[in-house]
Amino acid sequence: MTDVRPAVSADGPVETTALHALFRSEQGGHEQVVLCQDRETGLKAVIAIHSTALGPALGGTRFHAYASEKDPEEAAVLDALNLARGMSYKNALAGLEHGGGKAVIIGDPEQLKSEALLEAYGRFVASLGGRYVTACDVGTYVRDMDVVSRTCRWVTGRSPENGGAGDSSVLTAFGVFQGMRASAKHLWGEPTLRGRKVGIAGVGKVGHHLVGHLLEDGAEVVITDVRAEAVDRVRAAHPEVTAVADTDALIRTEGLDVYAPCALGGALNDETVPVLTAKVVCGAANNQLAHPGVEKDLSDRGVLYAPDYVVNSGGVIQVAEELHGFDFARAKAKAEKIYDTTLSIFERAAADGVPPAVAADRIAEQRMADARRAGRS
């Protein structure tokens, strides 16, 4: 492995907008960003550590090709920064003794991924000495974490055969479902989706599990996905599910009660929010709010937004349990508390007169601030 270095080198700042964003207050004051390049395997990666106030940073590894005409590498760094910050807040509200971090491997996993590359990436993670613990994310799977663990001890989301918890999407979906139940209780008075129409954008690792929970609860489900095979898999298992052409058609669906973004981030933006027909947004995707102010736009339109990093924390709860000897029942019991946490956020938002996203941030920031003060005392 070659060229492991800090984002700001001894020779001066790395001249990219993404790295300059590290020091801007709105980015959340990340502690560390490191870059890696391994020429033999084609590995290019970035790890962003947002906070270790509560403990070692924990967050997944995204393997993704960034379609940016200007600079794909810069887009990857910005994504890592945003995702790492989200993990700090997610872990804080999930009650975990972990800070937030995230890694991005840049490139198309279908073309670039190899065991040699993943082993090189493992050495990269290991070089941080435990400040960052990795897991699965978009483009990486349990089998990949098994390979990474050959060269690194700070890995979760491994297979049960290799001492791990297995697929974390199982409890991610379960947690999102608990967030939906809390949203239904807050808005309609009953913690059930029975008789409600729920639209899911993205039925991959998490979304297809979420479909099962909703159908079992008596909901009507509408889906879409950019991959036809993902839609076909769901409809083969659940022919009663309706599929629509794309996300635009989904969010405009007549009678939609809940919209669940379960693909990539930025789903709630200046184009989608004005045409939303649903009264609740609750999904598994990270960083759903495209920019600051979207949370107020949703609130002004009477749309109840369940903060993404709260409701999608079931997966990180699952992989965090792996570090202490995994027990699925114990992990599921912790993920079930997402229902109570989501309700408490809605109550705090109403009391403070702010959108739920702001209330959630305040609670998470208070826990991290308390931990920093305790560490200095």
Automatic annotation (TrEMBL):
Pathway: Amino-acid degradation; L-valine degradation. It catalyses: L-valine + NAD(+) + H2O = 3-methyl-2-oxobutanoate + NH4(+) + NADH + H(+). The keyword Oxidoreductase applies. Keywords: Branched-chain amino acid catabolism, NAD, Oxidoreductase. The keyword NAD applies. Its EC number is 1.4.1.23. InterPro entries: Aminoacid_DH-like_N_sf (IPR046346), Glu/Leu/Phe/Val/Trp_DH (IPR006095), Glu/Leu/Phe/Val/Trp_DH_C (IPR006096), Glu/Leu/Phe/Val/Trp_DH_dimer (IPR006097), Glu/Leu/Phe/Val_DH_AS (IPR033524), Glu/Phe/Leu/Val/Trp_DH_bac/arc (IPR016211), NAD(P)-bd_dom_sf (IPR036291). It is found in: Cytoplasm. Its main location: cytoplasm. It holds the Pfam family ELFV_dehydrog_N. Residues 166-376 form the Glutamate/phenylalanine/leucine/valine/L-tryptophan dehydrogenase C-terminal domain. Homodimer. Belongs to the Glu/Leu/Phe/Val dehydrogenases family. This is Valine dehydrogenase.
